[in-house]
Amino acid sequence: MQVSPDCEEKEVPGNDKWKLFHVVNLVTKGHGYFYGKRDKYKSSVFRINMGVKGIHICDKKGIKVLFDMEKIYKEPAFGRLNYNTVLLDGYTPSMFSNGIPHEKQKTFLLQICEIAQQSKIFETSVKIIKEYSTIWQNADSKLKSTWEQSIMHLTSDIFTEAFFGVRVDPHSMYTCLKGSWGKGRALRKALAGASCLKTSFRESPAITNILKTAHDAGISEEQALMDILFMLNFNSYGGVSGALRTCMARLYVLEPEYKEKMKNEIITVLSHQNLSVEAFKEMPHLNNFILEVLRMHPPVPVFFGRTKDNFILDSESGRFSIKKDELLVANVHMAHRDESIFDQPNKFMPSRFENEALIDHIIFGYGPFNEEPRPKIITVRDRPSPLQSLRL
Ligand code: HEM
């Protein structure tokens, strides 16, 4: 949304009082709560209350600040939902840590991803996908009715085998993720799941090398184990299984003409070579389909950060003065449906990405999807998210 920006710094519009009123609106309207405010204030930056007060940002230019660790610090929470760090024995994972500890933890995680890359994560994925394809081809009605769970198992197998050389109990991955901020029974189940994952990881063939890498990065063995547990469970298993399930659902309702083009493209490319990263580059229809899924259904639709100090926020709706300790809420879902960037944003149209310039407007862990790592790293969180250093 571009609303004639002026150069004057302004106050953030909107009010965040009457918490109950806001929360009822949010629960009943979902994203409609944010759209209503955007239209009311004619601004992509405005005040909200999601149970906690915050400043909502829904344009790419404004959202960039959430990746600038000179201005932002992280908390182990998603708005009013606190992550259950008890699942990690009280350790804070890289995603929620700050300063030097964060730099060390993230350096460690990027190194671990590099090692997984070298030890053929792509080949592991292809092998496991083939196994599951055989199972799915002979699926009975029970398996068909639990297809989402089967995709989650596949994702669990890929990541744990690629990083630890073992496949863990997929149910433990599920309960651990589900209890991320749950209470009571959900939390008890999550604790049992997390405990099972920790045992499997500790007994895995890759643990010795992983702990050596942790030692070299200057972090303790326990911290390292908890960082990988969080990354594999929350970031990769949570993010990728969500994206894969949406891909499947979208495939099911995809217009037949596009589906046919995608199918023929895959058959043609694979008729003269094996599945590889190079082969994928020759499949633009498939690539654009995935980009469109990630645009319309970003697996991380909102994320959060708190301001370290007063500063001026640059956005498509102008410049706003922001105070210290404000909670910023980046709404990727809305930025990906910005009608000033994407024609008919609510329509599923993979062919829109034939215009490659649009890829810059897909936001990921490192900011825009296409962005190269900057040559001079200011802070470590400025580096790409591990997803971008992995080529699955
Ligand atoms: C489609 C899949 C994925 C999406 C959309 C995604 C998106 C994101 C986003 C938006 C963040 C920032 C969250 C925040 O700061 O609150 C993030 C962080 C992170 N992601 Fe992903 N991610 C995906 C998959 C993965 C995978 C496969 C891995 C690792 C194997 C991974 C590892 C991480 C890690 C470790 C962080 C925290 C980085 C830090 O410490 O600053 N993600 N991701």
From TrEMBL:
> What EC number is given for this enzyme?
1.14.19.41
**InterPro entries for this protein:** Cyt_P450 (IPR001128), Cyt_P450_E_grp-IV (IPR002403), Cyt_P450_sf (IPR036396)
Among the Pfam families in the record, one is: p450
Top-level taxon of origin: Eukaryota
Q: So which cofactors does this thing need?
A: heme
Q: Name one GO molecular function term.
A: iron ion binding
Q: What is an annotated GO biological process for this record, any one?
A: retinoic acid catabolic process
This protein's name: sterol 22-desaturase
- The record lists the organism as Desmophyllum pertusum
Q: Top-down, what is the taxonomic lineage of the species of origin?
A: Eukaryota, Metazoa, Cnidaria, Anthozoa, Hexacorallia
